[in-house]
Write a structure and sequence with these properties.
mainly beta, 7-stranded antiparallel sheet, globular
Amino acid sequence: MNDKQKVDAFIKGELDKANPYIIVEIIEYVPNSVVSKTIIRKSTGNISVMSFDTGEGLAEKISPFDSFAQIIEGKAEIVINKVSHLLETGMGIIIPAHASNYIKQDGRFKMILTIIKSGYEE
C-alpha cells in the first residue's frame, strides 16, 4: 500500500494495523476549524490526531481521565489549573485527571491526544 492509499484508507476510517503512517500528514487544516481523527478507540482509552486552524482552540474542561498531548506541528499553549505551558513541535505534556485545562493556539498546529481511561476503577 502506497502513502496515498494509506491516507485514503485513514480518511475512510480504515486505518490499517501494522502499517506505518506519517501522522502529521494524515490530517489537514480546515479553515476556521478544529479537526479530529481517531487513530485508536478502545474501552481503556483513545488516541486521536487533531489539527487547529489559526484562531481555534479548545474550551476549558475537566476530564475524569489522564491525557497526554503532544504537539506534532507548530506550537500551542496548554493551560492546566491556570498554569500556562507553551509547547512546540515534539513537546508533550500530561494533563492530570480532574484538572481544569484548555488549549490556546499560537497559529496553526497539530497534536496527538491520548486519553487513558484505565486505572480509575476504585
